[in-house]
Q: What sequence folds into this?
């Protein structure tokens, strides 16, 4: 039996997407070898201790590429009212130019489809693609790399600026055979540039599918990226996300991660500081209900001195929902004057729900300010009574308190129309919970 | 409008209300005084339906309905309001949103249409003025980070917005400065009408200079042990509770 039994089907399109680029073929081939060289991780492996892959394997996803032609009207209801953005739409992982909005980009800025750039100007991405994720990729990143062909690319040269956010809409459309889309995104901000990236994973219909995305981000010196990632996959879907972020000196990165959809979701956020005085702010909200499993892993590597990181994740669990928060902040021996604080707060609405939370600090330096904290609690009966004594029904009162809890994270979403849209969706899901 | 008869209530195994009788008529203002720990807040909580109390005997009717059979929100829909001795902070719940949800829930329960945003804002501005409250409080989470006095005024502001038929003010005067006390009293007086009744729980005669009560009761050891007019409050102020045959709490 092959060690990767179950995932061969994910590898299929590597040959299909032959590009004639030697360097690309080599990178894909190495990833393929890596996939074949490692077995399916079991729950004995620390990174998968709480999350079994059995359910994912059982679905028999395959990476069949099929184009799904859609008219712009089909996605109109998914757009954020009033938001003017440079928009890249991927349908089942493939660039859909007719749905995207990229006309009139300023000089020195490239925003578009990876497939297109690999075809027309591969040298623009050659030195960046797959270099942040590095050679030791875990299984799902390696699977993505082995089949790497399309996704979002944002490249900003020094001295450029963007007046609008960049919006990625990853749209999944169900198909007869359950398929996996493996979009690969690359964001490179040169020194001194600023951008706002909104990533949204959405679906047109309830459907069974899998998304296995990888995003690589590089921020040059002093660059600033505001990144919002909204996962609203179909309730039946499987969602894997690996984010690899490299932060240059004095750069700023803020990531707001909202995970609401999917029946099975796993996020790995890996951040590495490569220059001093940089700061990253990783925050997130997960909402996990009946039949849902969500697993968040953070890996923040302070390998240079004088950087600041904040990790703040909040979760609401209900039904038989199950979540895992596994955060690790590592401070290298030389990384003096690191300032890091990690917090994970969970609200459990009913008895069947469960969370395993494991924040960890690994500190080798001696002059640092680091902390971590975790809470798992329930709604406060005093607060509930206060609301009800004002005439607010029990269900709405519970929902208001949950939204109050979530608001701390949701309030970071901009523009306002996005915040409202996501807040409404969270409220709608909470109706089932309260 | 409110009739409490022989009410007995326990917290856990401890009996706190021990056969309490109280009749409140429409439009009347009743002051309830009494030593610390005598059961005043417990009475307020039992009336408003807070969990954690077991009523073992007696009855409470409000406008002819069995109050004790109702959920807290249903009591609010009937027109009952409690200004908390210790208002609860609701981090993340916006004050305006909260008030709007409360007002519209009450209106919906009474078969009235929801107030639209404009009408709601107008009402809010008007009531804020009466209470000399800064409208920045509206943009903040309910009571979160409010000063003690702001919390108390926010309670009265909510009362002014929700226009209850019976308001129970549990030591709303405690912790207020002299100006705030007058403002709160003005707020209550502005709401006075022949249809509306108030229970003032207080330790201080001073509040009663501003809000003239029709009746004053002394609650001690879980019962109303004495009732009288305004002069009873003056007498208590002067003599303490000792002369009524009870010790003042330490
Ligand atoms: N949850 C509880 N568990 C145990 N005892 C309680 C609880 N709640 C109230 N009590 C007790 O019941 C008694 C009455 O309390 P209550 O708060 O009603 O007094 P009060 O008259 O409002 O006092 P104060 O004037 O100090 O506000 C006190 O002895 C108090 O300790
Ligand atoms: Mg009290």
A:
């Amino acid at each position: 039996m092959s060690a990767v039994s179950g995932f061969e089907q994910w590898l299929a399109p590597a040959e299909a997407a032959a590009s004639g680029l030697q360097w690309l073929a080599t990178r894909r081939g190495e990833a393929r070898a890596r996939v074949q060289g490692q077995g399916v991780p079991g729950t004995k492996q620390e990174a998968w201790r709480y999350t079994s892959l059995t359910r994912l394997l059982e679905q028999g996803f395959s990476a069949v590429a099929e184009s799904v032609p859609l008219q712009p009207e089909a996605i109109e209801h998914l757009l954020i009212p009033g938001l003017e953005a440079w928009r890249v739409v991927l349908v089942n992982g493939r660039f859909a130019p007719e749905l995207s909005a990229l006309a009139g980009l300023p000089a020195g800025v490239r925003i578009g489809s990876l497939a297109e750039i690999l075809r027309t100007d591969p040298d623009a991405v050659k030195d960046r693609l797959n270099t942040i994720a590095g050679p030791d990729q875990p299984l799902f990143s390696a699977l993505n790399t082995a089949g790497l062909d399309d996704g979002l690319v944002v490249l900003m040269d020094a001295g450029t600026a963007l007046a609008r956010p960049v919006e990625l809409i990853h749209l999944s459309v169900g198909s007869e055979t359950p398929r996996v889309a493996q979009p690969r995104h690359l964001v490179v901000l040169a020194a001194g540039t600023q951008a706002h990236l909104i990533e949204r994973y959405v679906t047109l219909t309830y459907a069974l599918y899998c998304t296995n995305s990888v995003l690589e981000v590089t921020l040059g010196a002093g660059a600033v990226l505001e990144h919002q990632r909204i996962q609203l996959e179909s309730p039946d879907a499987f969602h894997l996300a690996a984010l690899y972020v490299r932060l240059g000196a004095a750069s700023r990165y803020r990531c707001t991660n909202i995970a609401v959809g999917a029946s099975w979701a796993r996020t790995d956020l890996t951040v590495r500081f490569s220059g001093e005085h940089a700061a990253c702010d990783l925050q997130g909200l997960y909402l996990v209900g009946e039949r849902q499993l969500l697993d968040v892993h953070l890996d923040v590597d302070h390998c240079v001195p004088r950087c600041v990181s904040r990790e703040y994740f909040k979760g609401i669990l209900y039904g038989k929902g199950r979540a895992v928060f596994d955060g690790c902040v590592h401070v290298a021996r030389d990384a003096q004057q690191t300032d890091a604080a990690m917090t994970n707060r969970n609200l459990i609405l009913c008895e069947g729900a469960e969370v395993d939370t494991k924040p960890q600090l690994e500190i080798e330096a001696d002059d640092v300010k680091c902390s971590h904290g975790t809470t798992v609690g329930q709604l406060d009966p005093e607060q509930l009574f206060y609301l009800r004594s004002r005439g607010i029904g029990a269900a709405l009162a519970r929902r208001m308190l949950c939204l109050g809890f979530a608001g701390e994270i949701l309030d970071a979403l901009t523009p306002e129309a996005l915040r409202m849209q996501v807040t409404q969706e969270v409220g709608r899901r909470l109706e089932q919970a309260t | 409008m409110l009739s409490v008869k022989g009410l007995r209530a326990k917290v856990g195994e401890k009996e706190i209300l021990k056969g309490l009788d109280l009749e409140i008529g429409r439009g009347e203002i009743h002051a309830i005084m009494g030593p610390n720990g005598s059961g005043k807040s417990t009475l307020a909580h039992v009336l408003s339906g807070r969990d954690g109390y077991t009523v073992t005997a007696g009855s409470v009717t409000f406008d002819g309905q069995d109050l004790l059979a109702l959920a807290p929100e249903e009591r609010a829909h009937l027109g009952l309001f409690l200004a908390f001795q210790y208002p609860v902070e609701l981090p993340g719940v916006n004050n305006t949103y909260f008030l709007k949800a409360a007002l519209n829930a009450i209106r919906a329960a009474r078969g009235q249409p929801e107030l639209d945003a404009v009408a709601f804002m107008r009402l809010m501005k008007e009531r804020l003025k009466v209470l000399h409250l800064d409208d920045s409080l509206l943009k903040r989470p309910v009571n979160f980070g409010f000063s003690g006095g702001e919390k108390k005024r926010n309670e009265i502001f909510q009362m002014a917005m929700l226009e209850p038929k019976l308001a129970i003010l549990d030591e709303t005067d405690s912790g207020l400065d002299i100006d705030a006390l007058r403002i709160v009293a003005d707020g209550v007086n502005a709401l006075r009408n022949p249809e509306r009744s108030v229970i003032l729980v207080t330790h201080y005669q001073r509040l009663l200079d501003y809000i003239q009560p029709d009746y004053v009761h002394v609650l001690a050891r879980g019962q109303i042990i004495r009732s009288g007019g305004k002069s009873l409050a003056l007498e208590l102020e002067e003599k303490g509770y000792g002369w009524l045959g009870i010790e003042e709490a330490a």
Remarks:
- The first strand of chain A starts at residue 86 and ends at 91.
- Residues 380-434 of chain A form one domain.
- The radius of gyration of chain A is 21 Å.
